[in-house]
Structure formats: C-alpha cells, structure tokens
Backbone:
C-alpha cells in the first residue's frame, strides 16, 4: 500500500470515527441474527452438538471447540492452533465469545458471516481435514440422531446439508455472549466497578488514540453491516524493533484473500472483550503477555513508547473488559449405534 | 501360558463364578469411593475442570476428555486414540462412564484405582506428553484459579500435588454413572422394558456361557476388591480366522505389565454397559461393528459359530444395556490472566 493511499484510508477511518465510532459501548444483550437464520432452541442445541462433535473432522479428534474452547475463554490458550494429525496452523485462534458482534470473520475477514466461517475449518486440510463438504454431510447423515434433529429443525426431504450445518453452528455461536464486565457495570452507573487504575487506563486509550479503531460494542470498530469489514494495517509504524522480534509482518494478512497490494498486512481489528484472558496475542500468537501486547500496539500503531505506569493502567482497563461466561450444559452427541463412526 | 495352567485358571474362574459371579446385576446408584478420597461437591467440580483441561497436556491440545469424551459415550468413537502431535496409540480408549465399577483400570489392569489411572496418560509421551508429574503440577500451579481451588479442597501449605490432581479427577469420574437402562428397568420389574428379541438374547448369553465372565454390575466380572483384576485370555480358541483377520493376539496384553508368560494375551474383562454405543471393539479397536464383535467373541472364547438370529438376539440384549447419560454442566476452566499458558 503506498503512503498516499494509506493516508486516505486513515482519513476515511477518522471521519467515520468522528461520526459514529469513538464511543466505547456497553455490550448488547444479543446480536442480530440474519433473516434467513432465525434462532430456535432446537436449532441452537443442534448447533451446540455439532460445535462440540470431533466426528466432524477427518480423524474424529478435532471439533470447533478444540480450538475455540468455550470452556476456556473461547480459544485454545496457544500461539497457533493444532488441527488433525498434530498439524499447526499459522494463526492464533480468535475467541468465539462475542464473535457474533464482529461484522466479518477470520483474522483476514474472508468470511462475511458466522455461517460462512463455520464451513471453512471443516475442510481446511490442516484444521478439521475433511475431504470436502459432501464428506462432512455424509458423516453427519450416517448418525441417526442427527438425521432426526436436522429433520425437526430444518424440515424438507434432505435436511442434512452443509448450509444447514453452518446455520445451526452459527445459531449456537450467537448465544455466546459475556455480559456484565466491570466496564459494562461502570457504564450502567456503578462507578465502583472500575478501579482508579482502570479508569485512568480508560482515559489513556482514548487520549492515545487506541479507540480510533478499538471502539464499538466489542472494541473492534463500529457495528458495520454484516460482511463489511473494519480493517487496519498492522504493523503501520516501522522501526520499533517489535516487527522483527515478533515476525509481525511475515503474514500478509488480507492480501492472502484479495491478492491486492493495498491489503498487504491489513487485518480485521481485534476485539478487546475478554482480551485479558485470551492470551497469547496477535494473528501469529507471538506475544505471550498482555503488557507486552500493549507496548507493541502503542509502538507499531501509534509510534509511542509507553511508560510503565501507562502500560499498567491500560492493562487494568483491559482486565475490566472480562465479562461473565454464562454456565452451559454439555451437549449429548448423538450416538452411532452398533458401529464406529471413524474407521 | 501352557494348557494345564490355563485349564486350572479356567477352573478357578468357574468355581468363583458358581459362588458369586453369574448374576447379571442392576447398576448400583453410586460406586464406593476409597476412604482416603471422600467426594465433596468442590472436589468433584475441580476434578471436572482438570478432566476437561487440555492445558494438562504438553501441547495444550489433549485433555482426559479428548479420548474419554463424556459428551460422546465416554470414549472417542475411533479404533485407537490420538495424543499430542497426532500420535496414535495401540489401544482403543475404554469408556469412562461406569469405569468406577471396574476393580482395575486400563485394558491390562496396570492401575489399581481411578486415582492411579489418572496419573498415567498425563506423562505418556504419545498421550498427553508432559515431561513428568512435576511439570503437570507446575502447569496447574501457575494458574491462579486452580491454586485457590486446590487450597479450598485439599488444604495444607502445598495443595497442588499430583496425588491431589488424581484424587480430584477420580472423584469426578465416580459421578459418571448411566442408570436406568432398559435392562435395569426390566430387572426392577418393568417387564415391557425388554423386547422379546432382547429377552431371548439375555437367555442366550447365559446359556452360551458369555456371562461366566461378563457378569456383575457392569458385566465385567464380579465386584472384586479394588486393584484385584478379573482377567481373561483373549483370544483363547485358535483357528477361527478372526485372530489373524483382526490381529487380536499381536498385543501381549497383561504380559506387557508383568512380563510373565502366564499373562500373555490376558486382558481385563470389558464391561458391557453402553457397549452398543462405544464401537469400535476390542483392545485394538479392530472390529467396527457390534454384530461382528459378538461373532468374534463366540468363536474365539467359546469355539462357537453363531447363527444370524442368535447374533441379532444378543445384539438386541446388548443394546438394552445402554443407560441414561445424565445432563452435565460444562466446567469453566480457570483462566490464565494476561499471559499464555502454552508457549
């Protein structure tokens, strides 16, 4: 991306920001579901089963939950995720909690919706490794309990389809919301909910300019129409040393989707919700601690070298964005009677 | 094992059988816990967290639940299990449901208790792959929420120990009981609970002699004192062809523990509870279907070639041993704040 284009893009961000973004919003109670995929209790339960079912992977060992672990903070606490046969990917699993509030999915925004996202890892050879979507559908269709549930939820003569698999999983994911963080309680009027340190941090992220991008309900930018991504170049400011130390520019980011030079090292702006409990950080999971992540962002995005107390104030504020993870029941995965699902 | 010794051993089994075994018992409500590990609600919840926590493996990707999946029927629906780095073991994961009623653990009975069993996979290089128990304890001790819970549950100045880890996991596992199978309801007086086919199968497994070994509360033999195993040679009758087809004699079984020739191809008698939903079958997971498993057992253990209707009757009876899997809540795994658990 040449400098002029980048400056124009930045200007566009700032204008957008001034109009609608800069606010730090409380978390909405529930995300909007697309009109074609209204949630029902049965669909959500089916989606939960599919989300937790490792039989949706080639080896029967990797489920959606393996990398986006709902019982952890929605991810896997590792630098990069591990798929079938122990294969490692190149990117760190983002948390599934509150992902429904993001307007595009994946680090590079290559999926416009949760529905579209859910179809990807199933057939990624280093993730769940199924040969194709037909193989996924056949695996599910062979399990009698699933056949029955898909019929009840979606109807029709052939209810087990990859689109219905994705819709059920997305419907479940839209229930994964973490309300009542200290920040949300503060915004709702409980002025004791944030420590003095966290309140200083809150002012600091505004005055430094972090919230130019990290705004909105999950601090990942404004709530845009589904599929319209809010991207930013990372790293933008060269010369900090972090770029090399953490290999931040090696992965071309959105360029790998569009093959446009303008998109080199462009990334979807990450959410801040639960950021204190979803280490390690950045697309390649190269930074293990939150304080270092704050230093890296200040240096690479704002050209700032923060003082230790500035870092600790910001870290205190980011901790205040850890919400409540509602208790969930375990799904019962439909059994394969009298024979093995995986041979 | 020479033939005389084997005949003597068989005789001993038969005597034991006549005295105490042959009964097919209803499932008890709860197993006995050892005196040194009384269950409490907090200990069980801690054990559930540990059981589901993949951070107890070297790579942060394999938990107890990965292979003994509580949401499936307590195992992984695969021939053999997959540990860290995609490594495959040589044996099929037995179900954790009702394992508390077994008097020894592992296929070869090398653990005398659930507590002892829980320590094994953690440090098995092809399972969870931790360097040693010290590394497991350090991983857990680094997570503040675990430190606090261990203190509350076990007390003392150094509550995070490998023995306490194992005790918590075992306490959780003792809650994994599947009551109210059709067979149990039949035994309790509901004569409609078993189909005519299943009732014929129930008589058939007694008349054929299956229940000489497969008796007791989980059909894995008599309830012996903890640590006293009920083992049987498998395969015993040569010449069926199954031995070669399914490589049944390649793994020396209990011999690998004792190095005694008498123990070659000796195995703990497997439970029948939920057998219809825990395919594939046998120590090496080589038989994919229940009907084939029935044919193999009749041929290799009793020298019998069953007719198709005998097989289908027995399969109907075995299906009646599928119990109810109680709904469970998901544990919340204690978070590692501001840094990554796995680097």
Residues:
């Amino acid at each position: 991306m040449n400098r002029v284009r980048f400056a124009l893009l930045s200007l566009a961000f700032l204008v957008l920001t001034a109009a609608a973004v800069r606010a730090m919003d409380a978390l909405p109670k529930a995300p909007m579901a697309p009109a074609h995929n209204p949630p029902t209790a049965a669909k959500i339960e089916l989606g939960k089963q599919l989300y937790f079912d490792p039989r949706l992977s080639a080896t029967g060992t990797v489920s959606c939950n393996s990398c986006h672990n709902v019982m952890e903070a929605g991810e896997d606490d590792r630098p990069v995720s591990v798929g079938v046969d122990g294969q490692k990917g190149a990117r760190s699993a983002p948390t599934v909690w509150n992902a429904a509030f993001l307007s595009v999915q994946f680090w590079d925004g290559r999926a416009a919706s949760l529905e579209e996202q859910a179809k990807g890892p199933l057939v990624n050879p280093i993730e769940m490794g199924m040969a194709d979507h037909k193989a996924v559908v056949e695996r599910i269709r062979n399990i009698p309990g699933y056949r029955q549930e898909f019929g009840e939820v979606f109807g029709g003569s052939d209810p087990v389809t990859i689109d219905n698999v994705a819709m059920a999983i997305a419907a479940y994911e839209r229930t994964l919301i973490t309300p009542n963080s200290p920040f949300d309680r503060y915004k709702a009027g409980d002025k004791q909910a944030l420590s003095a340190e966290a309140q200083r941090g809150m002012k600091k992220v505004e005055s430094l300019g972090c919230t130019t991008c990290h705004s909105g309900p999950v601090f990942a930018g404004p709530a845009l129409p589904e599929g319209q991504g809010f991207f930013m170049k990372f790293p933008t400011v060269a010369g900090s040393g972090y770029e090399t130390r953490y290999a931040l520019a090696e992965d071309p980011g959105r360029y790998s989707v569009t093959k446009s030079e303008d998109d080199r090292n462009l990334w979807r702006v990450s959410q801040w919700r639960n950021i204190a409990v979803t280490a390690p950080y950045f697309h390649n999971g190269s930074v293990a601690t939150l304080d270092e992540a704050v230093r890296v962002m200040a240096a690479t995005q704002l050209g700032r070298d923060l003082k230790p107390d500035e870092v600790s104030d910001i870290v205190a504020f980011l901790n205040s964005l850890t919400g409540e993870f509602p208790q969930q029941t375990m799904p019962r995965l439909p059994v394969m009677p009298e024979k093995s699902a995986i041979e």
User: Anything to note?
Assistant: Residues 137 and 161 of chain B are 6 Å apart (CA to CA). Chain B touches chain A through 50 residues (CB under 8 Å).
